[in-house]
Specification:
Blueprint: H1 2-14, H2 16-40, H3 45-50, H4 68-79, H5 81-84, H6 108-117, E1 119-125, E2 128-134, H7 143-153, H8 166-175, H9 185-190
Antiparallel strand pairs: 1-2
Helix pairs in contact: 4-7, 6-8, 7-8
The structure holds heme C.
Heme C (HEC) is lined by residues 79-80, 82-84, 95-98, 101, 103-104, 111, 114-115, 119-121, 123, 125, 130-135, 137, 149.
């Protein structure tokens, strides 16, 4: 009996502690309610919507803007760098340089063809002759991806050639639709005018 009485005393003393706990929980609930109302409530939609997308006028449809140069650089690393190297200087005697290349900075309709269908046989780049095989990339890369890579190349390493439009790549792809073998240098040099865009080409 004496033992029981002794243990009852500390038990009674424990009661005020849960009271504090309850008060604390109530405070937490109030706090999180305020947080939810502030960040997810409908009342502050204006703040939430406009904050992360500066530059968009309200009501304009928000499509993520793709930077072709950044995309092109990423695609270059995946698809071209193994041969042409990070600095675009290629491998002497094996892979021609893209940095300073007259093909990269020349007409876009020739450049697009090289990437779409590949290149074979002797080719002169910056006074050096190569005789290898560049694989085609038209099947694994979209027109948009090729345009992005070429746009990246035409401003990399100090280049100042203009961007390559997706429409040019599309026109080249359509003009050489059935082509299943790579170009050679003579063929490319014989092309003197850009392909007319598909819309202006009368279909036979
Ligand atoms: C497997 C190796 C390899 C890969 C991958 C490759 N190339 Fe090439 N590339 C070559 C070779 C080899 C030549 C030269 C072909 C010849 O001698 O006829 C060449 C030639 C070129 C040329 C014309 C010559 C010059 O140096 O300007 C361009 C432009 C070019 N490649 C761009 C690219 C781009 C862009 C990619 C990626 C989409 C790419 N290449 C991927 C091997 C490669």
């Amino acid at each position: 009996m004496v033992e029981e009485a002794k243990t009852n005393i500390p038990r009674a003393k424990l009661l005020p502690v849960p009271m504090w706990l309850l008060l604390g929980l109530a405070g937490l609930l109030l706090g999180s309610g305020w947080y939810l109302a502030t960040y997810f409530g409908t009342g502050r939609n204006d703040v939430r919507e406009s904050a992360p997308t500066t530059g968009n006028t309200p009501g304009e449809k928000k499509t993520p803007k793709i930077d072709p140069v950044a995309l092109g650089e990423r695609l270059y690393r995946f698809n071209c760098m193994a041969c042409h190297q990070t600095d675009g200087r290629g491998q002497p005697g094996q892979y021609p340089a893209l940095a300073g290349s007259e093909w990269v900075n020349g007409p876009d309709y020739r450049l697009a063809r090289i990437v779409l269908h590949g290149l074979t046989g002797p080719v002169t780049v910056r006074g050096q002759t190569y005789n290898g095989n560049m694989p085609p990339h038209g099947e694994k890369l979209s027109d948009m991806q090729i345009a992005a890579i070429l746009t990246y190349l035409r401003q990399a390493w100090g280049h100042q050639a203009g961007a390559v439009a997706v429409e040019v790549v599309t026109a080249v792809r359509q003009a050489a639709d059935m082509r299943n073998h790579p170009w050679d240098m003579a063929e490319l040099l014989a092309l003197t005018a850009p392909d007319p865009l598909p819309a202006t080409t009368p279909q036979p």
